């Protein structure tokens, strides 16, 4: 293998204080520039954003993927850079040592109070956790379970002027047995542990079905709750307001899909710039691409926000496709990463995540010019990759892209296998497996992996060299085409066209696997020389 030498103004108003990039030209740093939605054509579900001075910070749901609670940074609300994670390992550790599809970190809320950054996040199986730091780029505290309860989700805190602290939240019917409700309780002002004084704010069954994802703010002597309703793929944005935090609340629909192609449009965050402009960031569900991120202008009319453009003047906005960028005092000066990795550093690039809390023997970065991933035993009763935890993956960075990797398979035993993988509920990968002392390349496909369907294998080719270049081309319509090369010059198609599919609450992902049938004291490995997206 060749070795190369070489990753607020607090929106609560209580405190003051990656398309590849297809939109890069339009979303540039000119103060008169026009940006185009989505601002992130990548899976950052349930985004929440704050401003601290001239800096904007975003977090999002990460579900079972680790590290979790991504921290993204921006200077202009349009161009974002992944800079950290707040959750290095997910509790309870005995639970998340194996993959827990759809569980883990649901819609989090980031806030800034008294010079500290807070993230409140729900785990639908256990309740509401809190982490904090004084440096969003540094180490965050270990999670503290501040409100225990199965099915309690979507927390949003508010520090009021009188020193009281409140926590609004919603319910996941799949765990709690109730849904379409918003509730609130108080928190201990010092420990932030929840008090047992919950009251219901809204029953949405009649007009706001599946209302969830509340974001609580105070503005002009009103308490506002922004909350999506109607479901992820077909819903709208509702806003509630009251001069009493416990209500009763008036409510109004403030954004819907209208005649656009932006289905949803679902939950997000209200942000006000230094210049006093109001903006709203939200997601759109886009199948295998996950929940991609949009930025909408926001205006006020008679004490109610209008999100997007109100073309028919009915007081309800619809999403914009393009718009003049926000007025900001400082421009972004970073080079946006597309996920490519030369694997020359002592740490992985931030884009990489595992499907569960990682074990030390899954793999190692190094300064040797490659990442080593070891063939670990398949899960008990293995049928397909749905139950595999040691999948090293990253989000799709854009709608269309080509990913190429150079790998060397240092197999030691028959039955060991590695793969270059497009993962979702349906998945496909290029597999290299050792049998009878020889290496064979093939395409593997699996449909409805969550329903325990078996894999199928096609186009098995004997390899004469253990170093190979593998390529996945993702085209419009979520179509995937695989090919391989022995010299990185001439590529040969292999297998069938595959249509990528989302995972459990996450978008499709791309990356690697390394497995074997049972335990050994000296497993084989794959040396991943580089991963490049173009």
Offer a concise description of the structure.
By secondary structure, the protein is an all-beta fold. Helix content is 1%, strand content 43%.
Salient structural properties:
eight-stranded antiparallel sheet, 534 residues, seven-stranded mixed sheet, disordered N terminus, 37 strands, globular, mainly beta
Strand coverage percent: 35-45%
Number of helices: 1
Rg, nearest Å = 24 Å
| Global mean pLDDT | 94
Question: What can be said about the biggest beta sheet?
Answer: 8 strands, antiparallel
Cα distance, first to last residue?
22 Å
Structure in words:
The chain is an all-beta fold. Helix content is about 0%, strand content about 45%. It has one helix and 37 strands. The strands form eight sheets. Strands 23, 24, 27, 32, 33, 34, 35 and 37 form an eight-stranded antiparallel beta sheet that branches.
Topology:
Layout: E1 34-36, E2 48-52, E3 55-59, E4 68-74, E5 81-87, E6 109-113, E7 116-123, E8 127-133, E9 144-148, E10 152-159, E11 165-171, H1 173-176, E12 181-187, E13 199-203, E14 215-219, E15 222-229, E16 236-242, E17 250-255, E18 268-272, E19 278-285, E20 291-301, E21 304-307, E22 322-324, E23 363-364, E24 371-374, E25 376-377, E26 392-395, E27 401-410, E28 417-423, E29 427-435, E30 438-446, E31 456-463, E32 467-475, E33 479-485, E34 492-493, E35 498-499, E36 509-516, E37 525-533
Parallel strand pairs: 25-36
Antiparallel strand pairs: 1-22, 2-3, 3-4, 4-5, 6-7, 7-8, 8-9, 10-11, 11-12, 12-13, 14-15, 15-16, 16-17, 18-19, 19-20, 20-21, 23-24, 24-37, 26-36, 27-32, 27-37, 28-29, 28-36, 29-30, 30-31, 32-33, 33-34, 33-35
């Amino acid at each position: 293998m060749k070795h190369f030498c070489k990753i607020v103004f607090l929106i609560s108003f209580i405190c003051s204080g990656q398309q590849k990039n297809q939109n890069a030209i339009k979303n540039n740093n000119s103060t008169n520039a026009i940006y185009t939605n989505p601002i992130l054509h990548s899976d950052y579900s349930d985004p929440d954003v704050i401003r601290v001075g001239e800096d904007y910070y975003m977090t999002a749901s990460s579900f079972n993927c680790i590290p979790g609670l991504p921290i993204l940074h921006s200077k202009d609300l349009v161009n974002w850079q992944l800079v950290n994670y707040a959750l290095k390992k997910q509790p309870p550790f005995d639970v998340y040592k194996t993959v827990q599809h759809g569980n883990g970190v649901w819609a989090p809320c980031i806030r800034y109070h008294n010079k500290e950054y807070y993230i409140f996040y729900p785990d639908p199986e256990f309740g509401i956790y809190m982490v904090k730091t004084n440096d969003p780029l540094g180490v965050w505290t270990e999670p503290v379970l501040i409100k225990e309860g199965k099915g309690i989700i979507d927390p949003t805190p508010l520090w009021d002027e009188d020193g009281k602290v409140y926590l609004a939240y919603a319910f996941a019917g799949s765990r709690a047995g109730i849904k379409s409700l918003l509730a609130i309780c108080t928190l201990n002002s010092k420990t932030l542990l929840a008090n047992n004084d919950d009251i219901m704010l809204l029953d949405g069954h009649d007009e706001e079905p599946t209302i969830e994802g509340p974001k609580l703010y105070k503005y002009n002597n009103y308490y506002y709750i922004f909350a999506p309703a109607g479901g992820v793929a077909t819903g709208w944005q509702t806003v509630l307001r009251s001069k009493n935090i416990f209500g009763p609340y008036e409510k109004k629909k403030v954004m819907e899909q209208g005649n656009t192609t932006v289905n949803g449009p679902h939950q997000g965050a209200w942000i006000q710039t230094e210049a006093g402009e109001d903006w709203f960031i939200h997601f759109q569900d886009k199948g295998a691409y996950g929940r991609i991120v949009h930025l909408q202008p926001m205006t006020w009319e008679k004490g109610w926000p209008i999100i997007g453009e109100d073309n028919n003047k009915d007081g309800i906005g619809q999403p914009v496709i393009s718009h003049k960028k926000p007025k900001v005092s400082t421009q972004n000066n970073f080079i946006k990463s597309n996920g490519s990795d030369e694997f020359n550093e002592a740490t992985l690039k931030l884009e990489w995540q595992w499907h569960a809390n990682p074990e030390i023997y899954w793999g190692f970065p190094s300064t040797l010019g490659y990442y080593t991933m070891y063939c670990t035993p398949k899960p008990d009763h293995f049928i397909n990759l749905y139950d595999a935890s040691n999948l090293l993956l990253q989000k799709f960075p854009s709608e269309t892209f080509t990913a190429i990797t150079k790998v060397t398979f240092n197999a030691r035993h028959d039955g060991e296998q590695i793969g270059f993988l497009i993962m979702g509920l349906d998945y496909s990968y290029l597999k290299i497996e050792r049998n009878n002392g020889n290496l064979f390349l093939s395409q593997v496909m699996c449909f409805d992996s969550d329903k325990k369907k078996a894999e199928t294998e096609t186009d098995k080719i004997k390899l004469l060299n253990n170093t190979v270049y593998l390529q996945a081309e993702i085209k419009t319509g979520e179509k995937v085409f695989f090919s391989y090369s022995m010299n990185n010059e001439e590529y040969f198609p292999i297998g069938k066209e595959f249509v990528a599919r989302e995972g459990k609450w996450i978008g499709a992902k791309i990356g690697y696997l390394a497995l074997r049938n049972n335990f050994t004291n000296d497993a084989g490995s794959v040396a991943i020389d580089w991963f490049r997206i173009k």
